[in-house]
C-alpha cells in the first residue's frame, strides 16, 4: 500500500522546490534578479482572489517585477474609509509610491467567496465571522443581480458584477481618483475561467465583458487615435 502523503511531506516538497529554484531557476535568471535587487518599478497593480488556482504571473505571462500583486478573498476592494488596512494601503502605495499606470481587478470562475455570497450558509459563516464581515463589501453586487432582468444569478454572473463593483470602489480611493484625474492611471476589470483558460475583459462603455482580442483591438485603435491627434 502506498504511503499517505502527509502535511510534513507537503512541506518537504515545498523545500525541494526552493532547492530547485536556488540551483536551477535563479542561476538562469541571475541578471533579472540582480536588476530587481535594490528596487521595483511595476507598471500594474493586479488585484486578484487568493484562490490557489489563480496565478497572475502565469495568466499574464509576466516576469518578477512586472506586477504588484494584491490578493484577498473575492478580489475585494472596500470603498475608501470602510476598512482602512492592508488593501487600502497597498493601493495607496502602488499608485503614490510605485507610480503604477494600470490597476486590474480580476475575478474568476468557481469563486468560493461568490458562492458564499450567492447562497450563504449561516452555519459555515458563523464559524468565519471575519469572512462574513469581509463579504459585505461585495453585497451590492448581489443586489444588482437580484434587481436585474438577466435571469437567475450564477456564480459567474455574480463574479463579473463583483468586478464592476470593486472597480467602482477603487474610484473612491484618493490616490486612484487623483491618478484618474491626471490621466496617469487606468482601471480594467477581468474575469478568468479556470476550466477553459479564457480571460474576458470588462468594456467600460457597454458594461459587458468582451474577448481579449476585441479588447486589444479597442486599445490599439485608441492608441492610433491618440498618435494622430494634434
UniProtKB/TrEMBL annotation:
<dbReference type="GO" id="GO:0008270">
    <property type="term" value="F:zinc ion binding"/>
</dbReference>
<dbReference type="GO" id="GO:0015976">
    <property type="term" value="P:carbon utilization"/>
</dbReference>
<keyword id="KW-0862">Zinc</keyword>
<dbReference type="InterPro" id="IPR015892">
    <property type="entry name" value="Carbonic_anhydrase_CS"/>
</dbReference>
<feature type="binding site">
    <location>
        <position position="111"/>
    </location>
    <ligand>
        <name>Zn(2+)</name>
    </ligand>
</feature>
<feature type="binding site">
    <location>
        <position position="51"/>
    </location>
    <ligand>
        <name>Zn(2+)</name>
    </ligand>
</feature>
<dbReference type="Pfam" id="PF00484">
    <property type="entry name" value="Pro_CA"/>
</dbReference>
<dbReference type="InterPro" id="IPR045066">
    <property type="entry name" value="Beta_CA_cladeB"/>
</dbReference>
<dbReference type="InterPro" id="IPR001765">
    <property type="entry name" value="Carbonic_anhydrase"/>
</dbReference>
<keyword id="KW-0479">Metal-binding</keyword>
<dbReference type="GO" id="GO:0004089">
    <property type="term" value="F:carbonate dehydratase activity"/>
</dbReference>
<protein>
    <recommendedName>
        <fullName>Carbonic anhydrase</fullName>
        <ecNumber>4.2.1.1</ecNumber>
    </recommendedName>
</protein>
<feature type="binding site">
    <location>
        <position position="49"/>
    </location>
    <ligand>
        <name>Zn(2+)</name>
    </ligand>
</feature>
<comment type="similarity">
    <text>Belongs to the beta-class carbonic anhydrase family.</text>
</comment>
<comment type="function">
    <text>Reversible hydration of carbon dioxide.</text>
</comment>
<keyword id="KW-0456">Lyase</keyword>
<dbReference type="InterPro" id="IPR036874">
    <property type="entry name" value="Carbonic_anhydrase_sf"/>
</dbReference>
<feature type="binding site">
    <location>
        <position position="108"/>
    </location>
    <ligand>
        <name>Zn(2+)</name>
    </ligand>
</feature>
Amino acid at each position: 500500500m502506498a504511503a499517505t502523503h502527509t502535511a510534513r511531506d507537503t512541506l518537504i516538497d515545498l523545500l525541494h522546490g526552493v532547492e530547485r529554484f536556488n540551483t536551477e531557476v535563479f542561476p538562469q535568471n541571475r541578471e533579472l534578479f540582480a536588476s530587481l535587487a535594490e528596487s521595483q518599478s511595476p507598471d500594474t497593480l493586479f488585484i486578484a482572489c487568493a484562490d490557489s488556482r489563480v496565478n497572475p504571473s502565469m495568466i499574464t505571462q509576466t516576469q518578477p517585477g512586472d506586477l504588484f500583486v494584491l490578493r484577498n478573498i473575492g478580489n475585494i476592494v472596500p470603498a475608501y474609509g470602510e476598512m482602512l488596512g492592508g488593501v487600502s494601503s497597498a493601493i495607496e502605495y502602488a499608485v503614490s509610491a510605485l507610480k503604477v499606470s494600470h490597476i486590474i481587478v480580476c475575478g474568476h470562475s468557481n469563486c468560493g467567496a461568490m458562492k458564499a455570497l450567492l447562497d450563504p450558509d449561516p452555519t459555515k459563516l458563523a464559524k468565519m465571522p471575519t469572512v462574513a464581515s469581509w463579504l459585505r463589501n461585495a453585497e451590492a453586487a448581489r443586489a444588482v443581480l437580484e434587481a436585474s432582468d438577466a435571469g437567475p444569478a450564477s456564480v459567474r454572473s455574480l463574479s463579473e458584477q463583483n468586478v464592476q463593483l470593486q472597480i467602482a470602489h477603487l474610484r473612491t480611493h484618493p490616490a486612484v481618483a487623483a491618478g484618474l484625474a491626471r490621466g496617469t492611471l487606468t482601471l480594467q476589470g477581468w474575469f478568468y475561467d479556470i476550466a477553459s483558460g479564457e480571460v474576458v475583459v470588462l468594456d467600460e462603455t457597454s458594461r459587458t465583458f468582451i474577448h481579449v482580442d476585441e479588447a486589444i483591438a479597442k486599445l490599439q485603435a485608441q492608441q492610433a487615435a491618440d498618435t494622430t491627434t494634434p
